Amino acid sequence: MEKEVQREFIYCSGAATEVLKVGSSHLSGRDVLFLIIPGNPGMVEFYRSFMQTLHSLLGLPVWAVSHAGHCAPPDSMDIVEDASAAAKRDVFGLDGQVQHKLAFLHQHVPRGTALVLVGHSIGCYMILEMMRRDPELKVLKAVLLFPTIERMAQSPQGKVMTPLMCQLRYLLYLPLFLLSLLPHGVMARLVRLMFSSIPDLDPCVLQPSVEMLGSGDCPVNALYLGGQEMRMVLERDNVTIQKNLDKLLFYYGVSDHWCPVTYFQDIRRDFPHGDFRLCEKGIRHAFVLDAGRDVAQMVAEWTRGSLRG
């Protein structure tokens, strides 16, 4: 039986944040915690099946923390506590999102907790930055899934999306606003239509997709973060990778247009003793859409040795 998922909304770095928890919701400081850092958009409900499967296989607490402002908070919460302070800190930008994750750890996870960090897409970049900025974090393992950690704008998908997210972003705000005004039922049918080409779609992604489009704020914040990703994720952080090589596991997609196979070949050449794996199962970059349980099974297998150690 799948473990119940606890859903919480908090302010972290002054921004609305959603936290999903499977297993223990309170930590003693002697626990091992799996913490998921999502891709973009960073709505953690997309990872529900992935988290439940991981917990069922390992029996350890699995938490996920959304990106700042990548959630649909209850009506009693604004997207930010203080708009001017949030703007000053640029909490929705790439650097602000990294600080947001460190703030979450410092405020909500006891300092002695052993961490298994699982990043997806831009979440992998954030994990490397977290490890660089706070080398005292007790990281047992960091699993980086479909890692967008370098040359994002030069990737095949980046070449398409960079003009959209950098130069044309503001043109998308009006249609996104109008979309958010649609009745819930119409929005749900629209989302189903969007995903109709995916035969094995995980049903857990439907509701957060409706919530995201209906919120108005979330897609705007996702576009803003995406624009910064294109401009800021340039050179790979080889220093941090080398320093933590024994803790890192990278998993690349064989047909991933955000981090193509050439990036896998380059990093494996530069770090011959690292743990770099190339997907042999045809899993898409957005694995949560139809392969969350499969990827969770792999992550459980990869990390068991570190948990015993």
UniProtKB/TrEMBL annotation:
Catalyzed reactions: a cholesterol ester + H2O = cholesterol + a fatty acid + H(+)
InterPro entries: AB_hydrolase_fold, LDAH
Top EC class, one word: hydrolase
Chain ranges passing through the membrane: 170-191
Family named by the database record: Belongs to the AB hydrolase superfamily. LDAH family.
Claim: Membrane is one of the keywords in the record: yes
Keyword Iron-sulfur: no
GO biological process per UniProt: cholesterol homeostasis; intracellular triglyceride homeostasis; lipid droplet fusion; lipid storage
Lineage, top ranks: Eukaryota, Metazoa, Chordata, Craniata, Vertebrata
Protein location: Endoplasmic reticulum; Lipid droplet
The EC number(s) this enzyme carries: 3.1.1.13
Entry's Gene Ontology molecular function annotations: sterol ester esterase activity
Entry superkingdom: Eukaryota
Alphabetical UniProt keywords: Endoplasmic reticulum, Hydrolase, Lipid droplet, Membrane, Transmembrane, Transmembrane helix
Cellular component terms per the entry's GO annotation: endoplasmic reticulum; lipid droplet
Protein name: Lipid droplet-associated hydrolase
